[in-house]
Amino acid sequence: MKNSVIVRAVAALAVAGAALVAVPAQANPAGTGVVIHEIYVNGGSAGATYRNKFVELRNPTDTKVDLNGWSIQYRSASGVAAFSGVTALGDHHIEPGGTFVISGNSNAANGAMLPTPDVAGSIGFSGSSGTIALSTSTTPLTGTPDVVLADSNLVDLIGYGGSLTFETAVKSSGTSVTSSLNRTNAADTDTDTDTDNNSTDFTAGSPLPQPCGAACEGSGVPEEPPVVKTIAQIQGTGAASPIIGTNVTTRGVVTAVYPTGGFDGAYIQTEGTGGALDLGTHTASDGVFVFSSELAAGVDKGDFVEVTGKVTEFGGLTEVTTSTGAFSVLDETPDVVRAAAVTIPSSATTRESLEGMLLAPQGDYTVTNNYTTNRFAEVGLADGDTPLDTPTNVVAPGVQATALQTQNNARLITLDDGASIDFTGASNQGIALPWLTPDNEVRVGAPVDFDDPVVLDFRFGWKLQPTGRLLAGGDEPVTFGDTRSAAPKPVGGDVRIGTFNVLNYFSTTGAEYTGGICSYYKDRQGNPITANSCTNNGPRGAADEASFQRQQAKIVTAINTLDANVVSLEEVENSINLGLDRDTALSDLTDALNGAAGEERWAFVPSPADVPAGEDVIRTAFIYQPDVVTPVGASRILIGASAFDNAREPLAQTFRLTAGSAASAFAVVVNHFKSKGSSGLPQDNDQGDGQGASNYSRTLQAAALVTFAQDFAGDAGTSRVFLAGDFNSYNEEDPLKIIEDAGYVNVPRQLTHKETYQFGGQIGSLDHVFASADAFSRVTGADTWNNNAYESLAREYSRFNANVTDFYRAD
Predict the structure, then answer these.
(1) pLDDT of residue 191
(2) Considering only CA atoms, which of 663, 669, 677 is closest in space to residue 778?
């Protein structure tokens, strides 16, 4: 999300492309390897046969197959990033000719309960389209379809519905509440057809889960007698254990335990360790995770335990995987384990030396990422007293930006909740989110104080875990500081100018749209909240009147509190595209502002007589306070500039003091350049220098803006010119250099130390106000009011009722 020189929120980026097909090496038409035998992806929906979704594997060979280290993975139909859902198969095997069942999540409480699955997972497979993979690793598969299919860890894969990732041809239909996708000859006890063609290898049929049960526990091969090892010997000094696969016996004190939430295990640490550590000489960790739901249910923090099990690696985390009867609580009194009082190191090697240990973090820490706090209950932290900087906001693109990004990646540490729950999954939205409450602050930029010890953990990135699963209202190990400001700081002067991206303010709701069909993002009860996609370039905002009122209330409160005399707006509905007067939505917003203010405080600048053909469905606009300023002449929009074929053309207006003379005139040009999330021209592909996609287009737009502003100012007879809005460029990027080289000053950068946007756990400014030399000489002050960008997405109107906790406030 971002604040312009007031506010901005971020929308999700989408990547789409043609499917790339490769034939993987895993094809086994003769039945020589484990295959995905059956998938049922509509569990729990109305009319469902079973309450939970499931994936069934089959071993068509005549030998046992060890599944230790393997996983079932999932990503969305259009995904090209890493597979987001990963369920480890743990210490299991498949018997010859046998099947093995892994459960997924449930859409609701409909259908019969599954037979007890061999592995209980929580992946939310889409019921209509997606990609399910079987891998010999728990590291998420990633990349384009051809890259995934060529991955040496891939065993089998099915793309269904509209998936872009599939073997030869997608299985386009067949999933339903009463139908699963089965191998074509699923009833055959000797083989499973696997020709690496999903469309012909699978057919629709009745779901028939057949778990293996206790017979599939363990590797299926006789265990070597365990060897006694210390935890430090198990961990070793490298990124992975030096004795992976070894059956070991070790001892430790339980420092953290997770019987619920998906971790299914406990951390143990060698007795007497921790406390004052010399990180220069401490090279091997004294803590390790023990993966066992039975152990997690049978021990408490402080217990002294002896554990026997196999050494494994789960996504980079060293574990000892044990089983029922292979651990015991000892009667001996151990030496006390103390939390290591250390500053979290940035070196991966040093972090490895602390993996799994109890820590009492020292030094300053600051929230730098809360984008997934409402989804995974994660809070990204940076060492020091400021969030991480977006590299191209502070250094030149290219080599310098790459170097800073590397430093940022090393400095980031994530505070987790001791669980692997996705709170946006339908079956989890009734669980109250930890960390967040309706009125507390977990804001980017907030200082963090550690009150209780945490465990250094590695689950797809370095994380700090509480010593037990954190529930809403539970004992949090940290305290977050207070950084909210109720209003902008005073900036002086006779006229206040502001800019505000209102994030798809559409007074035409999806429910009112008659020009096409809309799909929606919905709340936890299935009610539509915001438009996901509307055909024929329809609305992008609220789904219905109730959601619109919630959205509008927040915007109105913010603008009236901002109380600038001239406000440039971005992402207002361009009503002409919906068959209405171009200013309909702008007029509706102005009326709402005045209604909330209890007076005719605001007016809007009417659209110019001439506007470009084929405009975007969102537009820029001006509102102003007539008691303070008066428009001089009509507004003007740039027409005929090809640079803006993929963005919103600049809109200009001259104002003067209502109580002043013509000499008080000044011009403001509002902008909304092409975003970083997609490319259009061939030159717009992301160059890997930190400036994102479409940087070339934004440089053309910056040059065209400079010429347009110069011409408009000349016609208006003023040298006082302000360029405001959403430039989609950070401070050190090429487009802004073009504007500065033309003589304009970046006012907020010169007069504040605040940024307007957060993305990827880093902060920077995409929204700006530039002033000509004459205009800047008269500027008395500036402020960026971070009233939205640094907050959790849980508080956005579009997430209304997404969790059992009500986070909505009309502020």
Answers:
(1) 56
(2) 663
CA neighbor of 625 nearest in space, from 648, 602, 654: 602
- Residue ranges of the alpha helices (H) in 192-238? 198-201, 231-235
**pLDDT score for 185:** 59
| Of 52, 64, 61, the residue nearest 112 (C-alpha) | 52
Cβ-Cβ contacts under 8 Å for 147 (sequence gap 6 or more) = none
DSSP state of 438: S
Give the pair of three-digit tokens for residue 721: 């010119």
- pLDDT, residue 24, reads 37
**423 Cβ contact list (under 8 Å, min separation 6):** 374, 375, 376, 377, 429, 431, 433, 803
Q: How far apart are CA 715 and CA 720, in angstroms?
A: 12
pLDDT reported for residue 188: 52
Token couple for 550? 């919630």
- Give the chain's residues under pLDDT 50: 1-2, 4-31, 186-187, 189
What's the rounded Cα separation, in Å, for the pair 349 and 356? Answer: 14
Residue-by-residue DSSP string for 95-157: -TT-EEEEE---SSS-SBPPS--SEE------SSSEEEEEESSSSPP-SSHHHHHT-TTEEEE
CB contact burial 420-456 (16+ within 10 A = b; e otherwise): bbbbbbbbbbebebbbbeeeebbbbbbbbebeebbbb
Q: How far apart are CA 282 and CA 334, in angstroms?
A: 21
Residue-level pLDDT at 171: 95
Look up residue 308 and give its two tokens. 């026997």
pLDDT at 10: 30
Distances (CA, A) of 433 to 469, 545, 707: 12, 27, 51
What pLDDT sits at residue 427?
A: 86
E-strand stretches of 584-677:
603-604, 618-624, 629-637, 648-657, 666-672
Would the pTM count as exceeding 0.90? no
* Interatomic CA distance for residues 78 and 166, integer angstroms: 11
Q: What is the pLDDT at residue 2?
A: 43
Alpha helices, H only, 220-276: 231-235
Integer Cα distance of 97 and 64 in angstroms: 9
Query: Rounded to an integer, what distance in angstroms lies between the CA atom of residue 151 and that of residue 73?
Result: 13
CB 136 within 8 A of CB 70: yes
Rounded-to-integer distance, Cα 768 and Cα 643, Å? 20
**Which of 731, 734, 772 is CA-nearest to residue 748?**
731
Residue 393: both structure tokens together: 């906001």
Helix (H, G, I), strand (E, B) or coil at 50: strand
Instruction: Provide the pLDDT for residue 81.
Output: 83
Per-residue model confidence (pLDDT) at position 16: 30
